[in-house]
Amino acid sequence: MSLIVKICGLSTPETLDAALAAGADMVGFVFFPPSPRHVDPASAAALGGRVAGRAKTVALTVDADDTLLARIVETLRPDLLQLHGKESVARLRDIKQTFGLPVMKALPVETAADLAALPGYAAVADRILFDARAPKDATRPGGLGVPFDWHILENLKLDIPFMVSGGLHAGNVAEAMRMTRAGGVDVSSGVERAAGVKDIEMIRDFLRAARAADIDLRATVPHAG
I need a surface site. Which of 7, 18, 31, 154 has the fewest CB within 10 A? Predict the structure, then answer.
């Protein structure tokens, strides 16, 4: 299965078009006001209209209620819901049943002990995203530009696809892929020149680096998912 590359936190037509032109498989829109990448549903819908099936659209929310999710689903019509908060396994199940869309659960990782919650989520989610755990005083759970110890995911056996995020950029994505054997990588702050401000050349560089690493890894061991 081909590597999935997701560019998250897109908020302008120019950077979205750059991600699509460079071959992103997924493009993410953030619906979380504390984030500098936040977009409202109407703006996201206008951006989503530019995707035109060239990539999967992902709606990122943080502990969103059904009212917000319904508005996002109605306006953006995303292909995937990314749940980046403290949603329980039961909440994941409810969201899938209510909205009929696949879900990707973000799991914050700092130590191997953080994987204890993985089996429950993996039994319900369609995809897992491993992200760096935010500091206790952080105002948002992701997009902080900090990697976690990728050794934690070495030799991970998982029956559903998983992606890696947190502090990735063009210079380290190959190492993250080599160590985790993840089937996908997700970048946000690593392609920004300032918080929430995506850089077109950095987007292109990241995609080039990820694709090149994928070719190299395929010569050795297949991706995990």
Answer: 154
pTM of the entire predicted model = 0.93
Specify whether the CB–CB gap between 62 and 82 falls below 8 A: no
Task: Please give the Cα distance from 37 to 11 (Å, whole number).
Answer: 7
Both tokens assigned to 141: 């759970």
CATH architecture of the domain with residue range 4-218? Alpha-Beta Barrel (3.20)
Cα dihedral 161, 165, 169, 171 sign: negative
Q: Which residues pair with 88 in a beta bridge?
A: none
> How confident is the model over 70-90, as pLDDT tens digits?
999 999 999 999 999 999 999
What does the alpha-carbon distance between residue 118 and residue 158 come to, in Å, rounded to a whole number?
Answer: 9
Q: Give the residue from 197, 140, 135, 205 showing the smallest Cα distance to 168.
A: 205
Q: Which two tokens stand for residue 62?
A: 């943080």
Residue 12, φ and ψ in degrees, nearest 5: -130, 150
pLDDT of 34-75, one tens digit each? 999 999 999 999 999 999 899 999 999 999 999 999 999 999
| Pairwise CA distance, residues 160 & 167, whole Å | 23
Strands, E assignment, the chain? 4-7, 26-31, 56-61, 80-83, 103-109, 127-132, 162-164, 184-187, 192-194, 197-198
